[in-house]
Amino acid sequence: MSKHSRQGGKYTGNHTTLVPLAALMCDIADASPYVTKISPGFIKAGLRSAGGNRRVKITDSPTYILLSIRDNSSQQEVHIYTSDAAQAKKALTQGAKDLGVAVTFPKNY
User: Fold this and answer.
1) Which is deepest, 5, 8, 10, 78, by most CB within 10 Å?
2) Does residue 11 form part of some domain?
């Protein structure tokens, strides 16, 4: 298993490979007692360089929190299922800020 691959425990789905920033964010989510399930999505690779500006967009959905993660030259979405969305978002936001990653929320947030 690669260092950017996660499976077992709270991880579900067939896509276990993560971009480096997604792996860090999933580790933060996995450590939260409010997160019940983590479902990584497809990776979009080969994008134009973000110039080192890694960022995470946190979006609410009725049933999950969506993390849109932009690493230097790739993008990945991760669905985070929770028992308490507010506490999980707080942990994810603080964890991203501790990593020095920009966090954004949609305009309707």
Assistant:
1) 78
2) no
